[in-house]
Design brief:
It contains 14 helices and ten strands. With about 375 residues, the protein is α/β, with parallel strands linked by helices. The chain folds into two domains: about 40 residues; about 325 residues, Glycoside hydrolase, family 3, N-terminal domain (TIM Barrel, Alpha-Beta Barrel).
């Protein structure tokens, strides 16, 4: 009897042991499968990057303006030859909503790239607004700021996003984060501007729409229109920290950096860099914006054909990329756009700029653009 009990116990032990082994084996197998799936799941950014030629990568780093209101041979050539990654529209390109929508569709169809084009507009409200006869114009930022109600900035941004998406635009070069007394500024008070810019950012994000903070590190004190000539800002870094940077700092610190760009202004800030305007300054772009403020998103220049850049025009695209810019904006002349692109390509081929430096920018651009497909 005792022997029989021992045998029965042994049988139960074997069943329990083997069952446990099988269960453990199954659990281990499940974990291994999950681990393999986790390891093998490709990063879409890296997959696209690997599939791109050097010429395609550099094209992503240039955003251009075009002429005309519909697709033409010049635009086809630019997109097919240079793979430019984005287009900015001006009134010269815009007749009515239906025409703009068709134009944006044709641009993307001709580009035939691995990712969509950025289609951009300067739609700040007030006097800086496009196609005013057929597109809802928001009040100027100054008018919004004078209400004292940050929800007004949120609502204007949300409506702007809806209106722009309707015509095929996917990024707005706004809000203006500069502190000043012009109609383009929310206020002369840095903290007020920070609050209104942050509210505008939330409005765009509520619509899953890309926006742009401009013009870093702040051009509100400029006495000269940068479209015409360069201006020097001689304030110390401590003053800039208190009076100009708060709006940029707040949005960068509190929002997803992959959902907006920062646009570099063309002023010279002598306390930060007494040689270069901000748009080609390593100290300001990489040192201040990237390293100190920890901005991880896409950095774009203001138009590189402005008067403020005249004295720096030689190889300005190369200078911008070496300083840390991701996208060079060239709004008007086709010759200038092609020359800038080719200068960057030559700089990579000669070793002046490494391809890994190009890859860094393209990764940020792809990360942003892939959200357009979601």
């Amino acid at each position: 009897m005792k022997l029989k009990l021992l045998s029965i116990a042994a049988i139960f032990f074997i069943i329990a042991f083997t069952g446990g082994c099988f269960a453990n084996a199954e659990n281990t197998a499940d974990k291994n499968v999950a681990a393999v799936e986790k390891v093998e799941k490709p990063d879409p950014v890296e997959e696209i990057l690997k599939s791109m030629s050097l010429t395609e990568k550099i094209g992503q780093m240039v955003l251009i303006g075009v002429h005309g209101t519909e697709m033409n041979d010049d635009i086809k050539f630019l997109l097919n030859q240079y793979h430019f990654g984005g287009i900015i529209f001006f009134d010269r390109n815009m007749q009515n909503k239906a025409q703009v929508k068709k134009f944006t569709e044709d641009l993307n169809a001709v580009a035939n790239e691995k990712v969509p084009l950025f289609i951009a507009l300067d739609e700040e409200g007030g006097r800086v607004a496009r196609m005013k006869h057929d597109l809802q114009v928001m009040p100027s930022q100054q008018e919004v700021g004078l209400t004292g109600n940050v929800n007004e900035a949120y609502d204007c941004a949300r409506l702007t996003a809806q209106n722009l998406r309707e015509i095929g635009v996917n990024i707005n070069f706004a809000p203006v984060a500069d502190v000043g007394r012009d109609t383009r500024h929310f206020s002369e008070d840095p903290q007020t501007v920070a609050a209104f810019v942050e509210s505008a950012a939330k409005g765009y994000e509520s619509e899953n729409f890309f926006y742009t903070l401009k013009h870093f590190p702040g051009i509100g004190k400029s006495k000269i229109d940068p479209h015409k000539a360069i201006s020097d800002i001689e304030d110390s870094k401590a003053v800039l920290e208190v009076e100009d940077l708060p709006p940029f700092k707040k949005v960068i610190a509190e929002n997803d950096n992959s959902k907006f760009m920062v646009m570099m202004g063309h002023l010279k800030y002598t306390a930060l860099d007494d040689q270069n305007p901000a748009s080609i300054s390593p100290a300001i772009i990489t040192g201040l914006l990237r390293d100190e403020l920890k901005f991880s998103g896409v950095i774009i220049t203001d138009d590189l054909q402005m008067g403020a850049t005249d004295n720096y025009a030689e190889n300005i695209g190369v200078k911008a990329v070496k300083a840390g810019v991701d996208i060079a904006l060239v709004c008007h002349e086709y010759d200038a756009q092609q020359k800038l692109y080719l200068s960057i390509l030559d700089a990579v081929k000669s070793g002046e700029i490494s391809e890994e430096r190009i890859n860094e920018s393209v990764r940020r651009i792809l990360k942003m653009k892939l959200q357009l497909s979601n």
